[in-house]
Write a structure and sequence with these properties.
By secondary structure, this protein is α+β, with helices and mostly antiparallel strands. It is about 45% helix and about 25% strand.
Length: about 170
């Protein structure tokens, strides 16, 4: 191989290995109760406007780090269960990018930004079944740890975890 191709090939091999080491990311978003509305109303509002708000700086940072063009999201509503799945269309956008109406309506949910979403699909997986599924798929040892993770508002999922959750949610139907 000519010497001029070696750096390119080494770079390509590194990038391929890095992609294998850091597989595609999907995300489990948690819709929590707010002063203004219930967790269910919050989820319906965001899904209806085809966006998902980022309610903490940590969620924004993690999405900026791990979001890729094929990422998908799942929505877990507290005391309801898994209720929706969607495709994430945009990179993380700033709160200022919302129009005046939406910025007023979603000021709490999207105070750290938002992502545009599409291909929203409803899921009907009860709270009990959803929690059992998440405990099993995410290999979480107990309910207290699951509650702690859900309280963070988002959980990053591998492709295998996402597929297993979707398969379990489909079996619930």
């Amino acid at each position: 191989m000519p010497v001029s191709w070696r750096p390119f090939c080494l770079c390509a091999i590194f990038l391929m290995n890095a992609r294998d080491e850091y597989p595609m990311s999907h995300f489990l978003f948690v819709a929590g109760a707010l002063r203004e509305r219930t967790s269910e109303e919050s989820a319906e509002l965001q899904l209806g406007h085809r966006l998902w708000g980022l309610c903490t700086g940590l969620i924004r940072t993690n999405l900026q780090t791990y979001l890729d063009a094929e990422s998908r999201g799942l929505v877990y509503v507290l005391k309801v269960g898994l209720c929706a799945e969607f495709q994430i269309l945009s990179p993380v956008l700033d709160f200022a990018d919302l129009d005046a109406f939406l910025s007023d309506e979603l000021r709490t949910e999207a105070r750290f930004g938002f992502v545009r979403i599409d291909a929203v699909r409803s899921l009907a997986c009860s709270s009990g079944v959803s929690q059992a599924l998440l405990l099993d798929v995410l290999q979480i040892p107990d309910q207290a740890e699951l509650s702690r993770r859900l309280a963070l508002g988002m959980h990053r999922l591998t492709q295998a975890e996402y597929d297993a959750i979707m398969q379990g949610a489909a079996a619930e139907r």
